[in-house]
Amino acid sequence: MSKKDYEMFLFKIDQLNQLVELINNSPEKYKLFIRSKTHNEVVKLAKQWGFEIGKRWGES
């Protein structure tokens, strides 16, 4: 794993942790999140809330 890949890995973990915190603190967002049926729906919803979780850490 390159240093850049490692940094992207840490960034994704940070984004996911922040997303979980937001969802845990917002019953409305929680309801929207658990209604998602596909990975793409989750990624789109997270993006609307300001998070970038769709890119894999090894992708450029």
Task: Describe what you observe in this structure.
The chain is an all-alpha fold. Helix content is 68%, strand content 0%.
Unreliable stretches: none
Helix content: 55-70%
**How widely separated are the two ends?**
13 Å
Average pLDDT number: 92
β-sheet strand percentage: under 5%
DSSP strand tally: 0
Alpha-beta content class? mainly alpha
Number of helices: 3
Main sheet attributes: strand count, strand direction, barrel closure: none
Gross morphology: elongated
Q: Using only CA atoms, what is the Rg?
A: 12 Å
Order of helices and strands: HHH
Short descriptors:
68% helix; single chain; mainly alpha; 60 residues
Which SSEs are present, and which pair or pack?
Blueprint: H1 3-24, H2 27-35, H3 39-48
Quick description:
This protein has 60 residues and is mainly alpha-helical.
